[in-house]
Amino acid sequence: INHQSEARGALIVLEGLDRSGKTSQSGRLLSNLAGLGYPVESWRFPDRDTAVGKMISSYLSNKSQLDDHTIHLLFSANRWEKRSLMEAKLKSGTSLIVDRYSYSGVAFSAAKGLDIEWCKAPEVGLLAPDLVVYLDIPPEKAAERGGYGGERYEQLEFQKNVARHYKMLSDASWKMIDACLPMEDVEKQLKEMVLDCVTSCQKGKPISQLWL
Ligand code: 2DT
């Protein structure tokens, strides 16, 4: 039997504050895994290319205003519209590195004052990540990094509030990396964690669903 052909891919999620290095590290991780011969893709949420994603993008750049509950549900809908493709990719053996997921969804909306349980509800039934890596950086340090881009949410006081909500959502299964370390060190730690996860998924760890 060729077990390799039946091995599924891993769902790896990177979370962290704005400017914590998620996007740079996603790119490095993608090259590292691809270089080792693993089928892998890099995704991000929000996916601004879909119709829902365009509404989200317009909201984030302050070109439109939406009620806090409404935008929350749009972010969730944006994950739901990718769910079946996500499952198909994983089952076909491709690992996905996802820059932000449901935890961003809950942390950012709850930081505005929405009830956490209400925020989690529309995420129930989405695919659960096999690994959540949190790039940990003090909000003040993140703010010092080349400034924010001027989108909604890119303000120190709000980011501090988001950080508090991430801490509330995190559990013992999350892997933390000190995002103040040099990029190469973060990259190396991330690669090791992810290789472990990819291996356990190949060995048959089942795909599960949110919210755990
Ligand atoms: P980027 O700067 O990473 O494109 O994120 N956000 C993101 C939410 O409020 N809810 C969500 O579900 C997701 C995925 C975080 C754009 C901003 O959107 C926020 C930052």
UniProtKB/TrEMBL annotation:
InterPro entries per record: P-loop_NTPase, Thymidylate_kin-like_dom, Thymidylate_kin_CS, Thymidylate_kinase
Pathway stated in the Swiss-Prot or TrEMBL entry: Pyrimidine metabolism; dTTP biosynthesis
Coiled-coil positions: none
Family designation: Belongs to the thymidylate kinase family.
HAMAP family reported in the protein's UniProt record: Thymidylate_kinase
Domain Thymidylate kinase-like: 14-189
GO MF annotations, alphabetized: ATP binding; dTMP kinase activity; nucleoside diphosphate kinase activity
Cellular component terms per the entry's GO annotation: cytosol; mitochondrion; nucleus
UniProt-listed Enzyme Commission number(s): 2.7.4.9
Protein name: Thymidylate kinase
Keywords: ATP-binding, Kinase, Nucleotide biosynthesis, Nucleotide-binding, Transferase
Taxonomic placement: Eukaryota, Viridiplantae, Streptophyta, Embryophyta, Tracheophyta
Superkingdom assignment: Eukaryota
GO BP, sorted A to Z: dTDP biosynthetic process; dTTP biosynthetic process; dUDP biosynthetic process
